[in-house]
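ugh ok fine here u go
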Amino acid sequence: MLPLSLTLQNFMSYGDEPVTLELRGMDVICLSGDNGHGKSAILDAITYALWGETRLGKQGHDQLIRLGADEMAVVFDFQLGANLYRVRRQRTRKGSGQIWEIQAIEEDGTLRPLTGLSTSDTGRVITRLLRMNYDTFLNSAYLKQGKADEFVKQTATRRKDILAEILDLSRYDELEALARIKAREWTDRKLDAERTLKQIESVIAEEPEIREEATLNDQELARLQTESESLASKIEATNLRLALIDSKKREHDENLKRIASLDNQIRELSKSIESDKALCNEAAKLLGQKDQILRDYKLLQDTQSSIEKLTSESEHLNILERDLTSAQQSMENQKRELESHLKLLSSEFAKLEKELAAIPELHAESDQAKLLQTQIDQSKTDLSTHQKSRDILVQEMAELKAKYNLTNEKLDILEQRSVKIASLTDVCSVCGSPLSPKQIEEISEQIEAERTDLLSLQSELKRAGSANKSKLSKLDEEIKLVQAFIDANEPKRARLLSSERRLSELLSLKSENYPSLKKQISDSKSHLNSPDFAAEDKLKINKLSVEISALSSSRADLQNARATQKSLEPVVHAHARLINADRDHTAAQERLTRNTGQQETLKAEHNRLSSSLTDIDSSTKEAADINSLLVSQKQQLTEVTKLVSHTQNEQGRFQNRLEQIQKAIAQKAAREVELKSAEREALLHTELAVAFSKRGVQALIIDTAMPELESDASELLGRLTDGSMNLLIQTQKAAKSKTTDDDLVETLDIIVRDDLGERALEMYSGGESFRVSFALRIGLSKLLARRAGADLQTLIIDEGFGSQDASGREKLVDAIMAIRTDFAQIIVITHVDELKDAFANRIEIIKTPSGSQANMILGSAIG
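structure:
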């Protein structure tokens, strides 16, 4: 994948005006600018466009939209082989209008859509085209800051783990875990099959005994069924004998019930005859009192008319009394409300006077707060000045330390040169011929002079560092004292400011609330003592009192009338009986004649039935004996029936057991096949787990990849060192002890070879160690790209050039230039001014108020 152009709009630090970076035709590009200006945003834009991932991960994409903007867009053109493609992504904060498109750019400039049906489909289309996902890109095409030497710094065992992570061998760990799970599952199934087979065999072994028990049970069942049928016939005959006796008894019982019914009817008629005689006598008595009853009834009607009038007057009197009570209560309520309001106003006035008494004290605290604020502000100004001075000293000490470390490196180089001169192995750097003794002596003197100068410089740097350290200590003490003053007085200042706010509140209350409250109290007292207070209620009370006085006797008159009415209440019943007396007398005489004749008829029927009753004692005794026999027969039948039911259940149980045995015989062969299959699968998955383990296929893949990595890294290291260095990677070595069965143990040792032989990487100088680390990192990038099936055309280097001294930066530039032919494009990210001029083509990122801008600078490199 080769980047051609990138357009950003409202993406992170980039503004509303689209910014386009043209990258066509440039093999090495330096991306420079201060930290935070938007260099890393360019890489985030590329990975977001291609895979939907950034440093923030797969989520949080709303954070990529510039602050203050509602939407953002990224357009990325790239080349893959001979084909050109364009990816466009657009996103809004509201969650709508999300766009992710990929198009092929034809030769005539037209766009052919390749976008999937969904965003997931589009992502899969891009990943298939690139043959590279986000993680593969970061581990191959992107050299992250501070990560170039991470691989070589680790232990041999850890290096192998890192290489496994880079090669994405974790999927084999997953396969190993799945294989072990499957092996356990098949082992469990094997154990289940074995247990089931044992159970089946135990069931089959019971068949002879079950069949014998079933035959005996069938014989017993036939005997019990015959006995049951015999008992049923006997019970039927007994029931017929009992039915005949029961019929005679029912006829006798019916006659007894009829006689009892006749007795009841005769008694009821006797009562009715006596009642009718009494009615005749009472009707004759009422007819003799007719005149007196009519006079009393007329007096009762007159009294009831008088009660209605007096009741109306009494009810009106009740209404007037309620209105009077209501008017009196209204006047009392108004008085209580006014007195309560006056009491509340007086309480508020007293509370306000008490609060206003604190004004003089608050005036003093306000003045104190202003003075303390001035002191704190001055202390904060002094603190800021001290901190700026301290930052300058810290920066100077860092620079002194860097210079001191540089002199150490130079002294190490001089020491190595001195050793080579002393062993007479040095050669001329121009012609390559051995040096003469005089030349060796001159070079030795030159080395000694340089060493003396460096040691002198180190002494000066130490003195300057000590002086700065002393200044820094004094500044820290002053900062601590000023900060202590601020910390100690800030709470006090806050309390005094609170007093100042309280003073302002009280002055406002004094000028506004105090006069208002005083006037309200005076007005309330005047209104309470005024003659006009509750005037309407007073007038209503006087009027109601006059009306109540006029109706005061109506209640006593009503009570007397009701007493008269109560004494006359019996006449109502007597009057009603008088009206029906003639009719009741005639009806009673008729009923008396009719009931007397009916009573005689019933007595004759009673005598006839009594004479027809017969003796049934002998039939009752016979029925008792037959019932006893029937109970005995039924008990026998019940017992036999229970035995038949139990024997039938046993017959079914034996049949079920025999059916289960037949099923077990049929299942045995299938279970034996299942057991063999489970044993085979358990063994197979156990072997697969071993094959997928780190000592299996993973170690084999790493061993297979090592020649590629070793070849690429050695070839690049040779170019970086003019052929004087190469490296060897060992994945196994002889075991130091015989605690294991293997003579070899797994490792990943890096052996560096130069003109002096083989040495550990730690023995090389910083520059040489860096070249080895850089060569290995580039080799790993190529290896991972090839393993993913991708063509690694682009390399992005963000290697932290600020941590390198001038010599280290020069070596890094040399290394980049040495590999420029291996890649179609190299993008170098830096904020170091001394380094960016080393590259001919540069994109300068500048942050402006309207957003980050990209300035393209084309030309020749300096140097």
